[in-house]
Amino acid sequence: MPTIREKYDVLIAGTGVAGINCALHLPADAQVLMLTKSAADRSDSFLAQGGICVLKEPSDYNKYFEDTMRAGHYENDPAAVELMIKSSPALIGELVNYGVRFARDGAGNFRYTREGGHSEPRILFHDDVTGKEITSHLLEAVRKLPNVHILEECELLDVISAENECFGGIVRENKTGKVFPVYADYTLLATGGVGGLWENSTNYRHLTGDALGIALKNGIELEHIDYVQIHPTTFYSEKHGRRFLISESVRGEGAVLLDKNMQRFCNELLPRDIVTSAIRAQMQKDGTKHVWLDMRPIGEKTVREHFPTIYRHCLDEGYDVLRTPIPVVPAQHYFMGGVKVDLDGRTSMKRLFAAGETACNGVHGKNRLASNSLLESLIWAERAAKAMAAEGFGKDAPRPRADLFAYSDYETIKKDYAEAIREEAEREEYCD
Ligand SMILES: Cc1cc2nc3c(=O)[nH]c(=O)nc-3n(C[C@H](O)[C@H](O)[C@H](O)COP(=O)(O)OP(=O)(O)OC[C@H]3O[C@@H](n4cnc5c(N)ncnc54)[C@H](O)[C@@H]3O)c2cc1C
Q1: How do 338-340 and 52-53 pair as beta strands?
Q2: Taking Cα atoms as reference points, which of 191, 209, 170, 193 lies closest to residue 14?
Q3: Do 146 and 140 form a contact (C-beta atoms < 8 A)?
Q4: Which one, 169, 182, 255, 346, has least CB within 10 Å?
Q5: What is the CATH number of domain 7-227+336-426?
Q6: Rounded to the nearest 5°, which phi and psi values hold at 313?
Q7: How many of the other CB atoms lie within 10 Å of CB of 81?
Q8: Given the DSSP bridges, would you call strands 338-340 and 222-223 parallel, antiparallel or unpaired?
């Protein structure tokens, strides 16, 4: 393992869009350590297919706001929604400056697609690999920063805290099992979602809500831990492991859902939770393990141009979407709840921030509007970085000693965390 400093200005757990964008917005002289439980490019941010929302013109503000609120069953924080929407054009400009390519028309203008719950096309995309396009460019940029060090295959096990103030984290190197403390003025939890705790999920298996477990243990405020989003359409398979997502924009572009008799049974463009309910009800009525999704109405040109990855994946599974419907089933996809944060990503613990899917900032309410999550993750990460910089570095408060012995039984700690989160979430799992 490379030499690790005893103390950093900022410790970031997670190298998805949230972790990376925080690092990119910290001052160039701040010493930053980023941890990731797996390889740096194995994050859900790389998996995002559909795209990223943007306020494409001021006249769309009211509709975009209303679509987000309606999808969230009006449990969203209006101030957070407003902040996200109004920050989106500048954020997209930054991504373009980093070299991110979004689909454009012949005149060079952005092309917009739409997904369920959107009353307007307002989603920027890059084929069906928008997340990879965004995250790989940002990761490349952060890797070039001399003040940022990335530790792969290293996991945050806990925060070091005293009197509700965070002094850094306890880290475990996965290969050797070595556990060590990292002190920092500020710590950012950006550990992504909880899909690894579910049998059927579109998420990477190593995303097990670790930051939530840490929060539960340390009395850090959580919010809506039971708001788990199920995606209506993942490729049905008998195999175990991560479920392959069939992006919502497929339905936005005209694909239709069919029952066992190849008849349509719902409006495919309603918000995710409603379409999920309709599919589940249909499966129950038909006594089937999946329904069908027919992509033929989209047309060959758009399928090949806009959805090449989905097209190839289905071919590998034995289905040519240009000729035949594919089997689809709902699966766990996204986590709306999380570590409660304010508009700058501050948690209830001093000097501890959270951003991305692991945080709950109020944007999504009870149900996320499609393609709002990359956007809010990026925006809150930037805001957290700026809030840290504004509060200043070089804290010299006496540091509490970290009791490393307490982490010797790693498997039990992980199991306890996972069980605690599932227990909370299942009290009222939000599926229907
Ligand atoms: C298949 C799929 C398609 C999606 N499509 C879209 C879309 O089209 N548009 C959209 O807006 N959103 C989409 N999403 C959601 C979006 O990708 C995520 O919400 C977003 O990328 C979350 O970013 P993040 O940085 O919070 O987490 P992630 O990108 O998941 O990164 C989490 C990071 O934390 C690390 N980590 C986890 N635990 C620990 C630990 N204990 N210690 C250290 N590191 C840890 C992981 O290794 C990883 O680096 C999709 C999600 C999936 C799964």
Answers
A1: unpaired
A2: 191
A3: no
A4: 346
A5: 3.50.50.60
A6: -60, -45
A7: 25
A8: antiparallel
Residue holding tokens 């227990």? 423
**Is 346 considered catalytic here?**
no
Per-residue tokens: 315: 């071919």
* CA pair distance 198, 164, nearest whole angstrom: 31
The Cα 51–Cα 48 span in angstroms is: 7
Angstrom distance (rounded) from CA 308 to CA 24? 31
Place of tokens 């490349």: 140
CATH class of 232-332: alpha beta
Q: Point out the ligand 1 atom lying closest to the alpha carbon of residue 373.
A: 11
Pairing of strands 338-340, 359-360: parallel
Between the CA of 357 and the centroid of ligand 1 the distance, in Å, is 7
Q: Is 4 exposed, middle or buried (0-12, 13-18, 19+ CB in 10 A)?
A: middle
d(CA 26, CA 10): 9
As averages over each run of 10 residues, the pLDDT of the chain (432 residues) reads 87 98 98 98 94 97 97 96 98 98 96 90 94 98 98 97 96 95 97 90 94 94 92 89 88 95 94 89 96 97 93 96 96 94 98 98 94 97 98 86 89 86 63 36
Q: How would you class 93 by CB atoms within 10 Å of its CB: exposed for 0-12, middle for 13-18, buried for 19 or more?
A: exposed
Segments making up each domain of the chain, as ranges:
7-227+336-426, 232-332
Residues 6+ apart with CB under 8 A from 305: 127
Residue 352 — φ and ψ, nearest 5°? -115, 125
Q: What are the structure tokens assigned to 87, written together?
A: 């920050």
Q: Which of 247, 279, 245 is nearest to 114 (CA)?
A: 247
Which segments within 280-325 are labelled E, that is strand?
291-294
